[in-house]
Write a structure and sequence with these properties.
With 84 residues, this protein is of the alpha/beta class. The chain has helices spanning 7-14, 32-39, 49-57, 66-72; strands spanning 25-27, 44-46, 62-65.
């Protein structure tokens, strides 16, 4: 995937494929893409403290930290862009 993709965008595109279940998403921003994923009942994990704060401020339920997700996931798709 190109660098324009982030976790939320990738998750949103996976939701259009019902044969591919999406277990959870970890991200930093709490924008429309994260909200779209959350509305579908996908658990959200905060990639860092800033992300957790943004999600909670936006009224989104945070299931845990990125470390929590790593402990429970069978597979993870990394969609981090080259931007820092």
């Amino acid at each position: 995937m190109g660098s324009k993709w982030d976790a939320s965008s990738t998750a949103a595109s996976v939701l259009f494929h019902p044969d591919k279940p999406l277990a959870s998403v970890a991200d930093i921003p709490a924008d429309w893409r994260v909200e779209q994923v959350a509305r579908r009942g996908t658990p959200l994990f905060a990639a860092n403290g800033k992300g957790r704060e943004a999600m909670e401020t936006a009224g989104l339920a945070v299931a845990g930290s990125l470390a929590d997700l790593f402990r429970t996931a069978d597979a993870i798709v990394d969609c981090i862009s080259g931007r820092r």
